[in-house]
Amino acid sequence: MTQTVLILGASGRFGRNAAIAFRRAGWTVVAFDRKRDDLHSAARGADVIVNAWNPPYPDWARQVPGLHAQVIEAAKAAGATVIVPGNVYVFGAQTPEPWGPDTPHRATNPLGRIRIEMEAAYRASGVRTIILRAGDYLDTEASGNWFDQIMIKPLARGRFTYPGNPDIAHAWAFLPDLTRATVELAERREALPTFCDVTYAGYTASGRDIAQALTQVTGRPVTLKQMNWLPLHLARPFWPLARCLLEMRYLWNTPHRLDGAAFDALLPGFRQTPLAKALAQAVPAELRQGDIHPDQPVAAGV
User: Fold this and answer.
1) Contact of 244 with 238, CB cutoff 8 Å
2) Would the pLDDT of 142 be above 80?
């Protein structure tokens, strides 16, 4: 019997990739339109709700609690499982790595606290919920994330701009892989705990690792340059987003890796795309030196 997934935020980076992954797996995909649709009506008949709504940072305090409360209510009424793409904001700078499902949520900054409270609301609701937590995203097209907006913007000139310490570990996830994992967890949902926090390890790679891999992908030397944060400091008084980006800057200077042991136990046969091949799909086609075979040795950490 065909299963149905309702995707909230289907035009965003996670939602778009989730829609592709669910369709490929044979699910009926319903993309929610906030301008036209009623959430309770749209959720009726859905087996799974993928909540990929992600308001701009400055709107989190005002919008996130209410949006997720609506999803919880709709999921209860429909008897649906909710899948939420989680992030690493909940842990805080002082929490030792690796970060996983049993790692305490100790963030004290405003954006981190909002995420902690949001996840706690799902845990307390009794709604079957899967939090699939991952690091920074690599996408197959420009979608306004750090990688395409900042890091590879000067790649055509042989430069890679990194916003933090380039010599420390950082967690990354390739969205087609992450959303493929989302489908596999959705199909096993009845066997999971009512509230299931799953950490997707993805790639652990420093800024220099990424620059080295991009050298392999582009076929030309790539020089790493550290990002200048001064413009954001100057814009902070009158640009709310600048304040939020500065608030989260610590993650680029805090070494972290994600513990994928629980994920591996749930999906032991899951295989992710090699880092070099993921990066080849994340950069503009004209910058690639050619197709990279999945079995080709990877230049940097996975």
Assistant:
1) no
2) yes
Task: Kindly tell me if the per-residue pLDDT of 97 is higher than 80.
Answer: yes
Closest C-alpha among 16, 164, 181 to residue 83: 181
Report d(CA 287, CA 172) in Å as an integer. 21
Q: Which strands form 203-204's sheet, in the order they lie side by side?
A: 136-138, 171-174, 203-204
Extract the tokens encoding 253: 């200077």
pTM value is: 0.93
Q: Which amino acid is at 59?
A: D
State the DSSP code for 96. P
Q: In the predicted model, is pLDDT for residue 54 greater than 60?
A: yes
User: Hey, is 198 helix, strand or coil?
Assistant: strand
Output the average pLDDT for the chain.
94
How far apart CA 41 and CA 38 sit, in angstroms, is: 5
Per-residue confidence (pLDDT) for residue 290, from 0 to 100: 58
Angle (CA) 293-180-117 rounded to 5° is: 130
Segment (H or E) for 280: helix 275-282
CA distances from 115 to 32, 178, 272, 302 (A): 22, 20, 27, 27
Share of the chain above pLDDT 90, in %: 93
Residue 88 has pLDDT above 80, yes or no: yes
SS3 assignment, position 193? coil
In DSSP notation, 131-175 reads EEE--EEE-SS--SSHIIIIITTTGGGTEEEESS-TTS--EEEEH
pLDDT of residue 35: 87
* Alpha carbon distances (Å) from 122 to 98, 264, 287: 24, 24, 43
Could you give the angle at the alpha carbon of 55 between the alpha carbons of 117 and 133, nearest 5°? Answer: 55
> What's the rounded Cα separation, in Å, for the pair 231 and 265?
45
- Residues 232-253: tens digit of each pLDDT: 999 999 999 999 999 999 999 9
